[in-house]
Amino acid sequence: MPEGPSIVILKQELASFKGKKVLAASGYAKIDLSRLKDKKITAIKSWGKHLLICFRGFTIRIHLLLFGTYRINERKNSNPTLRLSFEKEELNFYTCAVRIIDEPLAEVYDWEIDLLSDAWNAAKVMKQLKKVPDMLLCDALLNQDIFAGSGNIIKNEVLFRTHLHPLSKVGKLPLKKKKELIQEARQYSFDFLEWKKAFVLKQHWLAHTRKTCPRCHIPFIKEYLGTTQRRSFFCNNCQFLYE
């Protein structure tokens, strides 16, 4: 599943489509495609894992889910969920969720919890964490109402950087460790973005998919943890369990 930094990269790749008119819309997305015809894109935005293609009065939200892909000015040998055709260009989105948002985006999204947003607010994220004292860290870092844009890579790498065990409970963390967790989630998201752009992201992974702890030189534990049951890679020696 593409994480927030990958969606920011997609947003940047689509920036040149702002101001262009959609001449035709097709695909199997269950939306009213006729609403898009002859409409100009007013902005390309992102929130967490959502790509937002804005028009006057409504927005198309695209979520690439686990296996979604996209193509700019080229096609795959499969039917798109959504194809937007312009005068000389086209956008194709595959295996994704598409919906129309009619409300103003400010009423739908809280930009203060988006890890890569200029409006990100550490105090707001702390407030969200305090609401879920019994939540496991492996679930909290995947919760889009707390860390919008965070995914499994960010989860594993942030927990390793902060020496925190994924089965620790949010409410058991000392205040200093909560603050460290919040700041590291933000910092790693920008590191992720930089490395992804340079095509070197995997080279910088310390925990995600790794077999050996680079600090302790002992085998990592790999388990499917929490209510999310996503893969966790962690060291039982240097990642402390707060329970």
TrEMBL record:
This enzyme catalyses: Hydrolysis of DNA containing ring-opened 7-methylguanine residues, releasing 2,6-diamino-4-hydroxy-5-(N-methyl)formamidopyrimidine
Gene Ontology molecular function: damaged DNA binding; DNA-(apurinic or apyrimidinic site) endonuclease activity; lyase activity; oxidized purine nucleobase lesion DNA N-glycosylase activity; zinc ion binding
Q: What's the superkingdom here? A: Bacteria
- Report whether Lyase shows up as a keyword of the record: yes
Q: Does the keyword Lyase apply?
A: yes
For this protein, the record's SUPFAM superfamilies field holds: N-terminal domain of MutM-like DNA repair proteins, S13-like H2TH domain
Q: Where is the Formamidopyrimidine-DNA glycosylase catalytic domain?
A: 2-91
Q: Which Gene3D superfamilies match?
A: 1.10.8.50, MutM-like, N-terminal (3.20.190.10)
Question: InterPro entries of this UniProt entry?
Answer: FPG_cat, FPG_N, H2TH_FPG, Ribosomal_uS13-like_H2TH
Instruction: Please list the coiled coil stretches.
Output: none
Write the record's keywords in alphabetical order, separated by commas: DNA damage, DNA repair, DNA-binding, Endonuclease, Glycosidase, Hydrolase, Lyase, Multifunctional enzyme, Nuclease
User: What is any one GO biological process for this UniProt entry?
Assistant: base-excision repair
Q: Matching CDD domains, A to Z?
A: BaFpgNei_N_2
Record-stated family: Belongs to the FPG family.
Q: What is this protein called?
A: Endonuclease
